[in-house]
Design goal:
mainly alpha, copper amine oxidase-like fold, Leucine-rich Repeat Variant, five-stranded antiparallel beta sheet, four-stranded antiparallel beta sheet, 58 helices, 11 strands, globular, Armadillo
């Protein structure tokens, strides 16, 4: 371990002096492997775990005194272990945040006590004890010496007079093996990494230099090397830094940030400490995260760089597209020439060469869609692929006036859709869906509107202020909701002009431009083009304008554009969230007059538009946090009190999106928003009802919120809305709210009074999946009560529930298995489930690839096996079923393991089934799970072990597979259910003498004695029985010794 820490770990200071471990993936791998070694040491090597270190391992800890339970003497300021050395000194001592540990046994227990902080504690220990082997075994084993091989270790121990030489030898060998294991892990980790090298780094720097300068359109002001000398390997870093993987250092000056001193290394690019003194020495220490390349680093550090870099990429893409188009047209012209030559007499061709060329050129410049059918399919596919691989979603700009917008639009469509559907929340994918691309036939001519708009754009480009305003008004006379008009504006360069007009001082031009942009930005392709052309930052600046009409139009346009991830990020990076939240405050002085007059004021309209834009932006987690930090929640709560639906819909929509975060749910309770959401459930506006129900669905994860919905009378309108099934979106929101509210038993009682359960059963058929998921989830919660299980059975709900077990929707399967399992608790319902072959369907879901479905199916099988007639024979009838269950014990998912252990507990009640699963290797698999800290898994694992002990020599086998010692630790849990299951398992295991010895060595007797006085009768009996078996073995041993 010492060699690995000295040579493999990455420290913040060079050499072997003081320093801390860097926060790198490699260090995390090393720490986790060391933790696994220490955690299992007490079980794998119990004798060596008692060895007392030559010097204690000492470090500063963050653990609380309360983390130490039984086995420790805890006072107000100190903790000391009951386990002491031969001099009476505790092997673990904690005082004033300083801890000393003197054995591996105490280290193992400390790791268990640390729980989630184990990684932090391991790091602190290693930083404070740079050569732990010396402190454990003595100075003869310093890792700085090169002769610390296995043979030398054995030689040093053999020639000493220490009576514990054998333990020392074993520990030394184990630490040597750990060193080799850490070396192997390091090599494996390094082999998976992708390293930079000087050649591409140099090319990136030269490219950035060519785009740098003093102009506004440049990506950087300057980028320079700190050293002009370049070594033969292409590096510019000093040799003593090259050995650490560093290649060069750069001084970068962005347009919108301070100068940055950057290190380029094989691991990536990161910010260093900069130049430290007048001699311009560099502080090489890393000061931030490591980025994969220089461009990614600069995009994160500078918004201006990101914006201008996008424009440069667009320009390069445009030039590449232009070149591709020229090649296509040349190829098309050549094909026509060859075809003409094959059909025309050579003499005629020589006679009129000029006329032929002129005719061909005329045809080529004709703005028609006919050319599209002559383009090679492979070229088209390649263009689409290239567009998808572009950095910012693959925007394809217009190429030449000779190219019809048809093909350009077709290529854009595929690339646009790829980025548009990137989602950050559950509702985002619905927002980003694009309508089908309806196109004119290939032989159809472009409509006259296309050419008229083209003329207007020319006036916009070259006219004075009056001509510009007239052209904008004329352009608004067209049907801008029509896709042809939208794309015509874009394809003839109108978007660039409209965005440029936003940067002028003429208010009328800004208003006209924003009105057009607001209409055409409903098109997904136009939205992307606006972002690519830098339109969003300009609109964000307009939000601070003194003109309220401009504010409204800018906010509404932002609401349309911010439908995809990149647009939302741009709004946030340029301060748009703070400004939009400020718009919500416009109506604060208008609360006193009558509601109708208030709503008609311009201030309230500004607030409505601001809420509309925030609704679009709130689909991003980062934007949600920005809205909360900007004080948006109190303002939204105040706007929620208005009775005007146009204002309420975007306000509730924003709250609905944000309520997915826990911080928002707490704030929503604090602002008493639930009361207003419940009130608006009684509105006549279906869209408002939908968003209110969805907001309640998001908030009802919290128990207090569920109680508030009930106290404010929200359950009755939710139940009544179940009867309106025409609007599926609203029905999905309402059933979702009912599902979450049903988690509280008091709410379930109310729903039964309102006859909602019967209505829910009726919705189990002929409904979309998003509704079925919520309906079945609600029934699963309601069926935890006996009365509701009877209602579901009498209403014929069992059959549709079982029929849903054959679906493929993961969320639906999780909920339906829970509902079927809840119904199976009732014997009458279980008869119906069995008759419908429901148990076999549940068993088949154990093969589902999704862990949540597996776990839910296994939990549902437990009541089915308990209440089925002749359950043992039923289980055996499933071919390969028992082997499938046993193999699930190899899963890494704790919930799957817990549910499978619970199922095995029920399966093992039948002796024949117990024999079969024993043959399938259930004992070693259960034993392997014993070293767990999860109390839920502990409980069901202990129950499974208790049941499996009742066959053959399984008790002995559990002992041989070292399952007994970890079980004793379960008795230190705070969960009474774990105590009961563990005591029962230990009672069964104590029938074997070797297991009794293991229990006694691990301190089980003292823990069991405390539980004999428990009020739980089953726990009492099991604890007493286990102690009795241990004592009986001790008496027999004493008797044998004296005889």
């Amino acid at each position: 371990m010492g060699v690995a820490l000295a040579r493999l770990a990455q420290w913040t200071a060079a050499g072997y002096g003081a320093g801390t471990l860097e926060l790198t993936p490699l260090n995390e791998v090393l720490l986790k492997e060391i933790l696994v070694f220490v955690e299992h040491f007490i079980y794998d090597h119990p004798q060596e775990a008692k060895f007392v270190f030559v010097e204690p391992l000492e470090w500063k800890t963050n653990l609380e005194l309360s983390a130490f339970e039984s086995g420790y003497i805890v006072s107000k300021t100190t903790v000391s272990s009951e386990e002491v050395d031969k001099d009476g000194q505790p092997l673990l001592f904690l005082s004033v945040s300083k801890i000393k540990v003197r054995s591996f046994g105490q280290l193992s227990q400390l790791v268990f006590a640390a729980k989630d902080a184990r990684l932090t504690e391991a790091q602190a220990c290693i930083e404070a004890n740079r050569d732990p082997v010396v402190k454990i075994l003595g100075s003869d084993y310093s890792t700085m010496e090169e002769d610390s091989g296995a043979l030398n270790i054995l030689h040093k121990i053999a020639k000493g007079d220490d009576p514990e030489n054998e333990k020392k030898m074993k520990i030394a060998i184990l630490l040597k093996q750990l060193d080799l294991h850490l070396l192997s892990c390091t090599l494996r980790h390094i082999s998976l990494q992708i390293h930079l090298n000087p050649v591409p780094v140099k090319k990136d720097i030269e490219l950035l230099k060519s785009f740098s300068g003093k102009g506004e359109q440049t990506v950087l002001e300057s980028i320079e090397y700190t050293s002009d000398f370049e070594f033969s390997n292409g590096c510019r870093a000093p040799p003593w830094r090259q050995v650490r993987g560093e290649m060069c250092y750069l001084l970068v000056k962005p347009h919108d940030a301070e100068a940055l001193c950057v290190t380029c290394s094989v691991q990536g690019v990161f910010l260093n400490g900069g130049k430290t003194d007048e001699e311009e020495h560099i502080d090489y220490e890393r000061k931030g995260e490591v980025y994969k390349d220089l461009v990614t680093f600069l995009k994160e550090k500078s918004a201006k760089f990101s914006e201008n870099m996008s424009k440069q990429e667009i320009r390069i893409s445009e030039e590449q597209q232009k070149n591709q188009t020229d090649e296509v047209l040349k190829k098309e012209q050549t094909d026509v020439v060859h075809k003409a030559m094959s059909g025309i007499d050579k003499s005629k061709l020589e006679k009129n060469p000029v006329n032929f060329g002129k005719n061909q050129m005329t045809r080529r410049l004709e703005p028609s869609l006919n050319w599209r059918i002559t383009v090679n399919g492979k070229d088209r596919k390649s263009s689409v692929k290239d567009s998808q691989e572009e950095k910012h979603g693959g925007k394809l700009e217009k190429t030449r006036a000779s190219i019809s917008p048809g093909r350009t639009q077709l290529l854009r469509k595929s690339a646009d859709k790829a980025e548009e559907t990137i989602s950050e929340s559950s509702s985002e994918s619905e927002e980003d869906e694009e309508p089908p691309d309806h196109r004119q036939e290939a032989n159809a001519d472009l409509p006259s509107e296309y050419w008229q708009i083209q003329k207007l754009v020319k006036y916009l480009k070259g006219g004075n202020q009056t001509a510009t305003v007239i052209a904008l008004c004329s352009m608004r006379d067209f049907n801008l909701a029509q896709e042809t008009c939208q794309l015509a504006i874009r394809d003839v360069g109108g978007l660039e002009v409209l965005i440029n007009l936003l940067d002028t001082d003429e208010v009328k031009c800004k208003i006209g431009s924003l009105k057009i942009l607001k209409e055409i930005s409903h098109n997904p392709q136009i939205r992307r083009n606006i972002v690519d052309l830098g339109g969003l930052p300009i609109m964000v600046n307009i939000l601070s304008s003194p003109y309220k009409t401009l504010k409204c139009l800018a906010a509404e346009t932002i609401a349309n554009v911010a439908k995809f991830k990149r647009a939302r990020r741009v709004v946030r990076q340029h301060g748009g969230i703070t400004r939009l939240v400020a718009l919500l405050d416009c109506a604060q002085n208008s609360a006193e007059p009558a509601q109708s007059s208030v709503y008609e004021t311009r201030d309230v309209e500004v607030a409505r538009c601001g809420a509309l834009a925030l609704w679009s932006c709130s689909k991003s987690y980062s934007n949600k946090e920005a809205i909360r930090k900007a004080g948006g929640i109190p303002l939204l709560a105040r706007l929620l009190k208005t009775s005007h639906e146009n204002m309420l819909i975007p306000v509730v929509g924003t709250l609905q999106e944000c309520a997915s975060e826990e911080n928002y749910r707490a704030a929503i309770k604090a602002e008493r928003i639930i009361e207003n959401l419940v009130k608006n459930l009684n509105s006549q506006n279906e869209q408002l009802q939908e968003h209110c129900a969805m907001a309640i669905y998001q908030c009802a994860e919290d128990e207090e919120t569920r109680d508030l919905v009930r106290l404010h009378g929200g359950l009755k309108p939710l139940a009544s809305l179940l009867n309106n099934t025409d609007n599926k979106e609203r029905l999905a929101a309402v059933t979702g709210a009912i599902w979450k509210c049903s988690i509280s038993k008091e709410n379930v009682t109310k729903f039964r009074e309102y006859r909602a359960i019967e209505t829910l059963v009726g919705l189990l058929t002929d409904q979309p999946e998003e509704v079925l998921v919520n309906v079945v989830g609600a029934l699963g919660e309601c069926c935890q009560d006996y009365e509701n299980r009877v209602i579901v059975r009498k209403c014929g709900g069992i059959q549709p529930l079982v029929s849903l077990l054959v679906g493929i929707n993961q969320a639906l399967l999780v909920n339906v298995t829970k509902a079927v399992g809840a119904c199976a608790v009732e014997p009458e319902s279980m008869v119906i489930i069995d008759r419908l072959d429901g148990v076999r369907l549940l068993w088949s879901l154990l093969k589902n690839p999704h862990p949540d479905v597996k776990a839910s199916a296994a939990w549902a099988l437990c009541p089915c096996i308990q209440n089925a007639k002749d359950a043992g024979e039923m289980v055996r009838s499933f071919v390969g079923g028992l082997e499938l269950v046993v193999n699930l014990l190899k899963s890494d998912n704790k919930e799957v393991l817990s549910s499978v252990c619970a199922a095995i507990t029920n399966i093992a009640k039948d002796q024949e089934n117990l024999a079969v699963i024993t043959d399938h290797g259930v004992v070693p698999l259960l034993s392997k799970l014993a070293n767990t800290n999860n109390d839920k898994l502990r409980r069901h694992l202990a129950e499974a072990i208790s049941r499996c002990c009742m066959w053959g020599r399984n008790r002995v086998a559990f002992g041989e597979h070292k399952a007994v010692a970890p079980l004793v630790r379960y008795l230190k849990s705070s969960d009474t259910n774990v105590h009961r299951a563990t005591a029962q398992a230990l009672f069964q295991l104590s029938e074997d003498p070797d297991n009794c010895i293991t229990m006694h060595e691990n301190g089980a007797v003292k823990l069991l004695l405390d539980m004999v006085g428990s009020p739980d009768q089953e726990l009492q009996e099991a604890a007493a029985g286990c102690i009795s078996n241990i004592r009986r073995l001790a008496l027999a041993t004493e008797k044998a010794r004296y005889n």
